[in-house]
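Example S7 (structure tokens).
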């Protein structure tokens, strides 16, 4: 079914030329985010980073979600949401790699200054003078957490705050904290984490409270290596929660399902879900099915070890980028050659971001390396341990891309060998 058949209202909001431009921009963003995941994994495997976890396979669904994200809305998500952050322009490619390299600079990596695991993002709520920012003019991310499902109970509180701001007129004076409760909290979680007790408790609470939440479950069929059939009742969280579905007589959840490779259906589903949550304060579960995870769970393992050939072949065919490419070509938005050009442009832009992040990270370390090598060569001229010092100094100088451990380890090894108090004090001062 074509997009025009499935979503005439969405298409008619724009002229055909504008609509085509918007759709191709979405495709380019999806390609860019995928390339960031692929390059990120390579950086880990070549030793420039210690661990990586990314959102590959979920790009198209997250772009559809981000289209509904307004100023004042909240994201309470987890470590697969890089495409959402890119789409709402709260993340750059350079920042993705700065975080991967653990660049401990708030200017280079504003989300956590390299202190958190990669793909953890945040929005700063206060100004430097301690005053609150105008929250109604920000697209807000509450700091991502590593423990699975930890974002869910927080979602209850965020959404309940909006309900209170809407229903309690005395709160309307605080118009920089809430737009009278008209914001939505977008919560995301993987299918495996829906088995956590706090998830089920929070689902019940939000259904009772009737709060403005759009909760997306990214379902790629596996909780790391465990198939969903062995993890979730009825092998489907939306089927397991069917009793929470609201009806004409009872409040509850609105439950929607959509395939993660179906771009037009995703756009329409998230539009409907968000309007319902924002206007009626009805919590909505969007169960995004048939997602893939092209690189496996993380850089610590290989999904080929627990997925059979049939599953891997299906994932290759139903990769959301491949399916979006087919849809664009079949609906006449672009030729395969034009889409290849967009993909190549996307790769180049991400590569530039990676290079900029690495240069910003490595340049100060190279300067430290040069400075220490120069100091050690001077010390070696008069030291009784000159041969030992020169050996370690030469080894340090030969490292093309040093990390701080290489530099400080060399300095400390030599410090222990020095006999001269003057040399010891000089080197000790440099280390400090």
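Recovered sequence:
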């Amino acid at each position: 079914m074509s997009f025009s058949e499935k979503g005439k209202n969405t298409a008619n909001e724009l002229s055909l030329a504008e609509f085509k431009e918007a759709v191709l921009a979405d495709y380019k963003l999806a390609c860019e985010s995928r390339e960031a995941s692929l390059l990120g994994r390579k950086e880990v495997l070549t030793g420039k980073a210690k661990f990586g976890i990314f959102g590959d396979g979920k790009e198209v669904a997250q772009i559809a979600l981000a289209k509904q994200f307004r100023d004042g809305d909240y994201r309470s998500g987890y470590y697969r949401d890089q495409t959402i952050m890119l789409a709402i322009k709260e993340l750059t490619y350079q920042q993705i790699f700065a975080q991967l390299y653990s660049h401990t600079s708030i200017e280079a990596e504003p989300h956590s200054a390299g202190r958190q695991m990669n793909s953890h993002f945040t929005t700063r709520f206060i100004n430097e003078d301690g005053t609150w920012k105008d929250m109604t003019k920000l697209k807000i991310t509450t700091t991502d957490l590593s423990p699975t499902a930890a974002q869910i109970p927080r979602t209850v509180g965020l959404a309940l705050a909006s309900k209170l701001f809407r229903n309690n007129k005395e709160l309307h004076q605080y118009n920089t904290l809430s737009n009278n409760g008209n914001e939505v909290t977008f919560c995301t979680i993987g299918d495996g984490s829906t088995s956590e007790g706090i998830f089920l408790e929070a689902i019940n609470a939000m259904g009772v409270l009737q709060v403005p939440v759009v909760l997306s479950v990214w379902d790629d069929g596996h909780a790391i290596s465990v198939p969903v059939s062995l993890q979730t009742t009825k092998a489907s969280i939306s089927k397991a929660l069917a009793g929470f579905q609201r009806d004409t007589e009872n409040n509850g959840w609105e439950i929607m399902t959509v395939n993660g490779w179906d771009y037009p259906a995703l756009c329409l589903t998230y539009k409907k879900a968000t309007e319902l949550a924002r206007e009626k304060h009805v919590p909505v579960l969007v169960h995004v099915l048939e997602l893939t995870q092209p690189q496996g769970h993380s850089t610590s393992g290989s999904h080929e070890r627990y997925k059979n050939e049939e599953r891997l072949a299906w994932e290759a065919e139903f990769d959301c980028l491949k399916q979006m490419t087919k849809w664009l070509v079949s609906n006449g938005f672009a030729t395969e050659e034009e889409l290849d050009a967009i993909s190549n442009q996307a790769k180049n832009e991400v590569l530039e971001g990676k290079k900029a992040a690495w240069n910003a990270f490595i340049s100060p370390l190279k300067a430290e390396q040069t400075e220490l090598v120069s100091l050690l060569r001077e010390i070696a001229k008069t030291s009784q341990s000159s041969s030992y010092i020169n050996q370690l100094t030469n080894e340090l100088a030969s490292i093309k891309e040093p990390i701080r451990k290489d530099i400080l380890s060399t300095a400390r090894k030599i410090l222990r060998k020095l006999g001269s108090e003057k040399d010891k004090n000089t080197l000790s001062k440099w280390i400090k």
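Notes on this example. Strands lie at 74-76, 140-141, 185-190, 213-218, 222-223, 226-227, 254-259, 284-289.
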